[in-house]
Amino acid sequence: MLEVKNIVKYYGDFLAVNDLSFDVKEGEIFGLLGVNGAGKTTTFRMIIGLLEPTSGTVTLDGQKIDYNVTDKIGFLTEERSLLTKMTVKEQAIYYGTLKGMKKEEILSKLDTLLEKFGISNYKDKKIKELSKGNQQKIQFIVSILNDPKLLILDEPFSGLDPFNVELFKKQITEMAEKGSIIIFSSHRMEHVELFCKKLLILKNGKDVLSGNLADIKREYRKKNIIVKGNIDIDKIKNIEGVVSINKKGLEYEIKIADLSVADQVFAVVSKGENITKFSVEEPSLNEIFIAKVGETYD
Question: Judging by beta carbons within 10 Å of its beta carbon (0-12, 13-18, 19+), is residue 263 exposed, middle or buried?
């Protein structure tokens, strides 16, 4: 288990991370979210041992993370960190060797992963000759060559088309099922919702919301009602507790302050014509994120 306990990080007088605590068990995919400058990168660097916390502790299976532990860690950074003049094979050997792997083991694992991601023919190509999407595949592959116990993924789907996003999702899920501890960060909230049962939102280095995603959604008071059909919009707008009405294609999205308003909305909608849908839905993670940090995640 990864345990982060009361970590604080100052850069001079600037407080970058403020008393942050969470844990991630084996087989869990944990979402760590926040706008740029919220403290995510500093937190990642403290977790993998690149930065020492001003105070607090980070442990993996009860052991402080240092060079005795880093061979068990994989990290895919948001920024490309590949050596572009190397071939794919040379890059893999370089990173694998840093993780204590033997050359034969590296090449065997590389062949398996290149085939899985449909790019076996790129093994001897230089990184700079690859498209952005294929460079992202290689960056992901080298981050998991060592079958990491702890894997940190910062914007793993950058530059990928939907087909390749599915390949990544399948691999990440397989790793979690085999017991890897995974921390996942993405600007795409729908990806976070697919993967993460637990999450934490950072703002100015502070935990502003954390817990199980299902509980967070259930406890968030605002709900959405989706209606399809001809409705009296003015009457619905006049209901106390209706926050807004937006038309999306053939449907209306009615935001309500809390679940108690739904019955009043239904009473009006039921008098409409050709009503084929009335659905009360939980808010999206994106709505909750904006409510908590006061801005969009971009």
Answer: exposed
